[in-house]
User: Fold this.
Amino acid sequence: MTTVDDGVLRTADGVPLKRSLRRATARRRTRTFMLVVPILAFLMVTFVMPVADMLFRSVDNQIVSSVLPRTTIAIQSWDPLSEALPKEFVFEALVLDIQESFKDKTLGRAGRRLNFEKTGMTSLFRKTGRRAKLITEPSYRDQLIAVDKRWGELDTWKLIHRESDAVTESYFLSAVDLTFDESGDVSWKVEERRIYLFLFYRTLWMSALITVFCLLLGYPVAYLLATLPTRHSNLLLILVLLPFWTSLLVRTTAWIALLQSEGVLNDLMVFIGVVSEDGRLQLIHNKIGTFVAMTHILLPFMILPLYSVMKTIPPSYMRAARSLGAPPFLGFLKVYMPNTVPGIGAGCILVFILSIGYYITPALVGGQTGTFISNFIALHISETLNWGLAAALGVILLAVVLFLYFLYDRIVGVANMKLG
Assistant:
């Protein structure tokens, strides 16, 4: 109930109607926001914060400056382009830092960090840490070089000078097979150490081919599911979903049993005479094993978007095409298939993005020729402990995915992508 007082509409309790509506709208928006707070918090914790941490770690370089604080300050006055070693006070700062960090058991962190850039730095710091307590005035330089001659090499000091900053580009350079040369310029790594660009290339083209295989195999299955009677299509749909109820590790190891040289498939081919006993095929621990296992694992992610789109296409479209004189294949190609493009786009981008991030399956069945860049990211996180390089590889992979997504949006259009 509203009343009019001095030309202003008011509610029954005398509050102006406009103010009451604004309050009601604000309360409704607050309730709506509170409903989505849990999902926003979930996304923040599980997506935004890990990505932000990865971006930070890819450039973070505070280990050297935290372990060798005096040295990183003193060495700033030294010109790395000069042909002379740093002055005596820089050597003194280094000795004091090594003595203190060796006592605190943190010296190894600096050695491991510098070892990522130059082999042998871990042993150099470990050796110097054990003998540093014997180094005293007046000549720190001579005594330090006497401990290990590498302290008298310019390359060692150039490395410490370069990695003393809190932010570094070394991880990203290493992730694209680049490094700093003796003069401090960026150059290619030696031939036998250039692996990451090739791994990125292998990951992309193998993921693209797996996506094509999934499309070729999944399209007829999705069409069959969409055109069969409901009671039959539901049964087949359960068979499509059945792999989701089986452990990924179990499915992958099952392919190892099938594809290995003494496996089921080779035994069958030997039995029917397709190959000889000595000519068994190598179908595992190579690209073939990765293609087969990952196509099988990712196939449902292609079938389901296609099926959900095909199910919405009215059967009258094909009947109309036939009534207008189009042969069945031409009618399918000109009428039915264009309507499935949103499902094709959704399935392809879903399978492709999942494929480039897989590492368990390629690690088990890929061998040396079928592994992806994700396997090396996992290697640096769990074994070499080079988290900075792993983060840089992850950032580059994320950038590649975003670029391809942008390219897909420009060519096909994300608005045309449908999951049902």
Remarks:
- Residues 17-57 form the longest helix (41 residues).
- The mean pLDDT is 88.
- The longest strand covers residues 2-5.
- The chain has 20 helices and four strands.
